[in-house]
Amino acid sequence: MAEYQENGARLGWLINRQDRQVEIYRQQQSVEVLENPNILLGETVLPSFVLNLDSIW
């Protein structure tokens, strides 16, 4: 994920289906880890984007 951030990505999600875990990467912030979330929001990067994770789990 570091390479994406170095190239300007402001938001990144690493979805681990096996553990039902999502790591959220934001520029100049610590990684946030979510356990079994239902949705992911695009925050200020993609303001109206919502990813429903029900079909992924």
UniProtKB/TrEMBL annotation:
Domain Putative restriction endonuclease: 1-53
Coiled-coil ranges per UniProt: none
One Gene Ontology molecular-function label: endonuclease activity
Alphabetized UniProt keyword annotations: Endonuclease, Hydrolase, Nuclease
Domain of life: Bacteria
Classification via InterPro entries: Nuclease_put_TT1808, Restrct_endonuc-II-like, Uma2
PANTHER family: SLL0198 PROTEIN-RELATED, SLR2092 PROTEIN
Protein name per Swiss-Prot or TrEMBL: Uma2 family endonuclease
